[in-house]
Amino acid sequence: MKNILFLLCALLSMGGCSSVQDDRMASLDNSTVIEFDISRFMGRWYEIARYEHRFEKGMTHVTATYTLRDNGSISVKNEGYKNGKHKEVKGRAKQPDPKDPGKLKVSFFLWFYSDYYVLDVDSDYRYVLIGSSSDKYLWIMSREKTLPAKKQEELLDKLRTRGYDTSKLLFVEQE
After folding, report:
1. Average per-residue pLDDT in the chain?
2. Predicted TM-score of the model (pTM)
3. Enclosing H/E stretch for 9
4. Is 63 exposed, middle or buried (0-12, 13-18, 19+ CB in 10 A)?
5. Which domain holds residue 110?
6. For the domain that residue 159 is a member of, what is the CATH number?
């Protein structure tokens, strides 16, 4: 129940924008991929880095697993460890507009959905950059627990070019 309350608080906080945030967002490129194959995106992803936020604070060994349902919706299972204890939350996702395939919506509580923007994905669906309509959320994810140094720097460069502050990224312990 505590996890659900944290998620609800986080989701509700995404809606408010101050003028300072509006100024930052003006220089942020959070445009999504034009082509996105949702079936290739399915499976397990390891969280390499993220902007810290309440609902993942202190979490290590974080993964996200996506499973396509028969009705076209997506099951989401996020899990990791906090203070040595396994934590898990299940949710759902959807692709609301086929004309904008990189913009997904994710929910972990009732009907409250948050933006989940696929900013970049490599052609083999091995690495992905995820953001939102807000500058508060950012993830680097991989199919493997670690990234080669060259690939990590390439992804960080892509984020910097888009206007993201990569110094705020928290690199997640996976080993």
Report:
1. 87
2. 0.83
3. helix 2-13
4. middle
5. 29-171
6. 2.40.128.20
